[in-house]
Amino acid sequence: MDKEIILEKIKKQRKFLEENSMLNYKNRILALKKLYKNIQIMTPEINEALKKDLNKGEVESYMVEIGMVLNEISYMVKHCKEFSKPKRVSTPLAQFPSSSYKIPCAYGMVLIISPWNYPFMLAIEPLVDAICAGNSAIVKPSEISPNVSNVIQKLIEMTFDEGHVTTVLGGVEECTFLLDQDFDYIFYTGSTRVGEIVMKKAAEHFTPVTLEMGGKSPCIVDETANIPLTAKRIVFGKFLNCGQTCVAPDYIYCDEKVKEKLIYELKRQIILQYTTDPINNTEYPRMINQKQYDAMRSFINDENLIFGGKCSDEKLKIEPTILNATFEDEVMKEEIFGPILPIVTFNDIDEAIKNVNSLNKPLAFYVFSSSKENQNKFINRCPFGGGCINDTIVHIATPNMGFGGLKQSGIGAYHGKIGFDTFTHYKSILDKKTWLDLSMRYQPFNKFKTFLIKLFMR
Ligand code: NAD
Questions:
Q1: Residue 171, CB half-sphere, CA atoms under 13 Å: how many?
Q2: For residue 110, what are the β-bridge partners?
Q3: What are the residue ranges of helices labelled H in 139-286?
Q4: Which of 180, 215, 216, 418 could form a Cys-Cys staple with 409, CB 3.0–4.6 A?
Q5: What is the pLDDT of residue 395?
Q6: What's residue 394's pLDDT?
C-alpha cells in the first residue's frame, strides 16, 4: 500500500480521536453491536476465505475463529458500561480531606498486527477489546493469509468510520512503515523474532506494547494419568489447524512407564478424529505454505517415525505424525508449529521439571496427572503463560482469565476485562477538598508537625 495512503489514514484517526465521540461508552457499544451483526452477515465469506487460505472446515472455523470473536463481543457489550466507569479507591488518612478515583481512558490510536494461523480471530479479537476501551485502531493483518485479510478489510470498511477503525494490507514493508509512526499502543501477535523488532521500534516512541508470541509448550503426562482421555485431548489440541496453533502442545514429555500405552491410544485417537486417511479428509487443514510444509517434512525420518508421516506435496498436507525424540534433536530446538508430535520420556519428576525449565518460558503448559501433588509440582515450579490440568488449549476460551505469555512467549495479556485493561490507561486522580487545609506538610516544620507526620505516615 502507498505510504501516502497510510499517512492519510493516520491523519484521519487523529482527527477522529480529537472529536472524542468514543468517550461515551454508548457509542462503543453501538460500534461493537454493528461489528457483531456484520460478522454474522459475512460468515459465509469468512468461511470461504478460511477454507482457501488454510483449508479450515466450517465447524472448526466457527469454533476457533468466528465463535470466539462473537463471544468476546457479547462479553464486552455486556460489561462496557461497568468497565468504563471511574473506580473509587480509598484514600490514606494523611490526605484528609479528599477522595481518590481512577478514570479509565483509552490510549488513543492503536496498531494491531496479526499473524496468519488464526487470521480472523487474532485480528478481530484484540480489536474488540481496543474498541470497548474507546480507542481507534489500524489493523494490519497477515499477507500470508490474503483471502482472510481481504475479508477483514471489507468487514471493517462496512462497519466503521475510517477514522475509527481501518486496515493496512501488506507485508514487511508496510508493517515496518507503520512501526515507524507514532502510535499510542501496539498490540502484536506473531513470532518471537518479529516481536523483538516490534518492541525495539516501539521503544523509539516510548509506545507501550502487548506482544503475543509462541514457544515450545510442553505436554506432561505422568504415570497416574488417565491415558485414553489424555490421548484424546492431546490429539484434539495438537492437530487442530494442522498443528499451526500458538498454544498447541509442542511436544509430549511423559513418564517412560506409560509411553507405550500412550502411543497406542494416540494412534487410536488420530484415526478416530481424523480417519485413516487425513490427507484426503476435507476437514483436516493444510500447511499454510511451501516453506512451512518443507520445514515439517525435514523433521521426519525412518529412525524417529512412530506413526503417520505421509505427506502430499500437491495439497501441502502432512498426516498427524508421532516421533521419538530427545532434547538434543533438531525438532526440540524451536517451536514446531505443525502436525509433528515428538515424544520425550522421563524417569524422575524433579529431573523433568529441570529439563522443561532449561528451555525458554513457554506460552502454554499442560499437565496430565491424577495426582494433586504432581499437578501442583509442575504448575508451581514451571514458569509459563497459562495452561490446563488434564486438557489442552481450552484455557484460552474464557473471557474471565487473561491470555498471554511471558518473556520470549509474550508480554501482557488480553481477553475480557484484562483485554479492556490492556487498552486502557487509568488516570489516578486525588480530589482535594478546599474547606480544610491541614498545615502539617508546609514549612516551617516544628515538633508538633513532625509528630503528626510520623503519626499519619507509619
Ligand atoms: P510473523 O511474526 O511472521 O508475522 C506476524 C506479523 O508481523 C504479520 O502481520 C507480518 O506481516 C508482520 N511481519 C513479519 N515480518 C516482519 C518484519 N520483519 N518487520 C515487521 N513486521 C513483520 O508470524 P506468523 O508466522 O504470521 O505467525 C506465527 C507465529 O505467531 C508463531 O510463532 C506463533 O506461535 C505465533 N502466534 C502467537 C499467538 C498468540 O496469541 N500468542 C497466536 C498465533 C500465533
A1: 5
A2: 137, 185
A3: 146-159, 172-180, 192-204, 227-239, 259-274
A4: 215
A5: 95
A6: 95
Ligand 1 atom closest to 403 (CA)? 40
Which atom of ligand 1 is nearest to 142's Cα?
A: 9
Q: How far is the CA of 212 from the centre of ligand 1 (A)?
A: 9
pLDDT bin (cut points 50, 70, 90) of residue 69 is very high
Return all residues near 215 (Cβ < 8 A) that are at least 6 apart: 192, 250, 335, 360, 361, 362, 363, 405, 408, 409
Annotated active-site residue 246? The verdict is yes
Q: What is the mean pLDDT of the chain?
A: 96
Nearest of 449, 430, 429 to residue 440 by alpha carbon: 449
Distance CA 39, CA 212 (A): 24
Angle value at C-alpha 331, between 325 and 337, nearest 5 degrees: 125
Q: Could you read off the pLDDT of 79-88 as tens digits, one per residue?
A: 999 999 999 9
Q: How far apart are CA 138 and CA 10, in angstroms?
A: 8
Cell matching residue 250: 509442542
Domains of the chain: 3-213+408-426 (3.40.605.10), 218-396 (3.40.309.10)
Q: What is the pLDDT of residue 457?
A: 87
Please state, for a pLDDT cut of 70, what percent of the chain lies above it: 100
Say how far apart CA 186 and CA 62 lie, in whole Å.
Answer: 27
Mind giving me the DSSP string for 254-317?
EEGGGHHHHHHHHHHHHHHHH-S-GGG-TTS---SSHHHHHHHHTT--TTTEEE---EETTTTE
User: Which SS3 state, helix, strand or coil, does residue 379 take?
Assistant: helix
Question: Ligand 1: which residue has its CA nearest to atom 14?
Answer: 172
Location of C-alpha cell 507526620: 453
CA distance 72 to 247: 19
189 Cβ inside 6 Å of ligand 1 = yes
d(Cα 367, Cα 255) in Å, to the nearest integer?
Answer: 12
Instruction: Name residue 246's amino acid.
Output: C
pLDDT, one tens digit per residue, over 164-180 is: 999 999 999 999 999 99
Predicted TM-score (pTM) of the model is 0.95
Q: Is the CB of 122 under 6 A from ligand 1?
A: yes
CB atoms inside a 10 Å sphere around CB 253: 24
What 3-state DSSP class applies to 188? strand
Distance, CA of 36 to CA of 120 (rounded, Å): 13
User: For a substitution probing ligand 1, which of 211, 244, 246, 361 has the most ligand atoms within 8 Å of its CB?
Assistant: 246
**pLDDT at residue 375 in the model:** 98
Kindly indicate the confidence band of residue 206, based on its pLDDT and cuts at 50, 70 and 90: very high
Is the minimum distance from the CB of 243 to ligand 1 under 6 angstroms? Answer: no
With 0-12 / 13-18 / 19 or more C-beta atoms within 10 angstroms meaning exposed / middle / buried, residue 206 is: exposed
